[in-house]
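User: Sequence recovery, please. Input:
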């Protein structure tokens, strides 16, 4: 199990019993991050087809994907997110295949009506950035 992912699972802001929705999964995602979230919440991650309210969201994003698609995904994810729960965009770190610039994520977040708020080093290959609706938190 990746120790960094283990240390940071709680820093996502997820809690026991939370339902976490995962968007844009692909075979390059880090399964240790997913496993730690599932262990922390005690629940399996649900995919983007899940149509009930969720307590948190992770979006896997890579450079080369359409920025407008990221904005649309953020909007779609936020509509099922209850009570301003944690919404994270996870991107490969600089130097890794698919690394996205923080300005791309920030621009997409702004277009979606969100602020890019809290950065997090998730592990040696992935960074995360927490998004919040304008006017919510810091």
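Assistant: Recovered sequence (138 residues):
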């Amino acid at each position: 199990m990746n120790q960094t992912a283990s240390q940071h699972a709680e820093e996502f802001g997820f809690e026991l019993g939370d339902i976490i929705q995962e968007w844009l999964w692909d075979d390059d995602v880090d399964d240790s991050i997913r496993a730690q979230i599932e262990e922390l919440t005690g629940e399996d991650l649900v995919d983007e087809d899940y149509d009930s309210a969720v307590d948190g969201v992770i979006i896997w994003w890579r450079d080369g994907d359409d920025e407008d698609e990221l904005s649309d995904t953020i909007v779609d994810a936020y509509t099922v997110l209850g009570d301003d729960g944690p919404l994270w965009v996870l991107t490969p770190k600089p130097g890794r295949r698919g690394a996205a610039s923080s300005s791309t994520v920030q621009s997409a977040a702004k277009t979606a009506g969100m602020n890019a708020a809290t950065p997090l080093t998730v592990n040696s290959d992935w960074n995360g950035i927490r998004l919040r609706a304008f006017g919510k938190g810091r």
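Residues 67-79 form the longest helix (13 residues).
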